[in-house]
Amino acid sequence: MLNAIIPQLDDGAVHPLRPYKTLEADELQTRIEAVRAHFGERLLILGHHYQQDEVIEHTDLRGDSYQLSEMAADSRACETIVFCGVHFMAETADILANRPEKLAERDGRYVNVTLPDMSAGCSMADMAAIKQVEDAWDDMAEVIDTDRVIPVTYINSAASLKAFCGQHGGIVCTSSNARAVLEWAFERGDRVFFFPDQHLGRNTALTMGIDESQMPVWDPYQLDLGGNTEQAIRDSRVILWKGHCSVHQMFRAEHVDQFRKQHPGIKILVHPECPREVNDIADVSGSTGKIIETVRSSPAGTKWAIGTELHLVHRLKAEFPEQEIHFLSPVVCMCATMYRIDLPHLCWTLENLRDGVVVNPIKVEGDTKKWSLVALERMLAVK
Ligand code: 13P
Ligand code: SF4
To answer: Whose CB has fewer CB within 10 Å in the chain, the N or C terminal residue?
Structure first.
């Protein structure tokens, strides 16, 4: 439990979080529940499926990225959303919960969104900075007509990238709607510029019959056309950003082969952030929501090796003991940044709220808010 980083204060003073780190779990749990009871419906605690169990127990709702966006978009009675996920998820919640029509419904009242630990980021989202994406866009415009390129950002990205998509006729996708979003994009343009996750982009485009030879990978650290020839960019259908999830890239085709050899009849269930070599040979690939639903709807005795974040797989094992569930990799693959949100951070955040202080507020403003909302609303309208 004492795993998270305690930020240093500039003046060297003890961070106010430190006393919480010395508390036992049962005291933290009691205090968290007391604040939840105090606020009732005015407080909404959202948790992503990768969150650790001891935190998940205190959430009102949990979901995959798409479901969490919908929950934030729907939020009615609440005054504050405490987001037990990572930074881009909290930004998305702020944009959707505080869009103009929601503010009007609430007579202008703003819903505060807070992230219990500001260092809970997403390493994949950090692989694409807005300046890099803008530079790439300008560079490719020298070779192809970017008016016919639809930018698509995975929701695992900063709000500035979502805004870029909103401004350039593009859209946001999640792992649960990536195919529908790419179809939407191809109804409007000839090519897609997909960032930051090359694997989700590639795996999804392959299901649409697009050949990998038409999917050049744009490396932002290469000077010329992201390391591609002019011809490769002209021949492209989907230009993939060179980004990945450090958790899902750990799953390998040999892990699949070993499980199939050692456990005849076992089924392989993976997240589409896994590399193509794994995704291609899996039995089922889908968002965390789909992974849960697939296990839930399977008969007792089904054997699974699951390639996604460790905490979710452990929870599935505990919730479905009548099925045989294995973790696909021999090494620990966990989302270390999401894991930074723990009981001390949650308790500290909530008790501050009770005392009228919003710690770690997440607020997207100005044009970034306006244009990222455009791209998110396009996503929510795609069925
Ligand atoms: P889901 O949308 O499938 O929950 O994925 C989010 C994520 O970050 C996976 O790494
Ligand atoms: Fe980001 Fe990977 Fe963590 Fe998902 S699992 S939040 S993509 S680092």
So the answer is: C
Nearest CA to ligand 2 atom 7: 245
Q: Tell whether residue 48 is among the known ligand binding residues.
A: yes
Top CATH class, 2-121+338-364:
alpha beta
Q: Give first-to-last CA distance, the chain, whole Å.
A: 40
**The CATH fold of domain 248-327:** Rossmann fold (3.40.50)
Q: What is the 328 CA–ligand 2 centroid distance (Å)? A: 17
Ligand nearest the Cα atom of residue 126: 2
Strand order from edge to edge, sheet including 112-114? 61-63, 43-48, 80-84, 112-114
Domains 2-121+338-364 and 248-327 share a fold: yes
Q: Please name the residue whose Cα sits nearest to atom 1 of ligand 2.
A: 122
Where do the domains of the chain lie?
Answer: 2-121+338-364, 124-244, 248-327
How confident is the model over 6-18, as pLDDT tens digits? 455 566 677 789 9
Pocket, ligand 1, Cβ cutoff 6 A: 49, 64-66, 156, 174-175, 245, 271, 273, 287-288
Residues 6+ apart with CB under 8 A from 318: none
Read off the pTM.
0.95
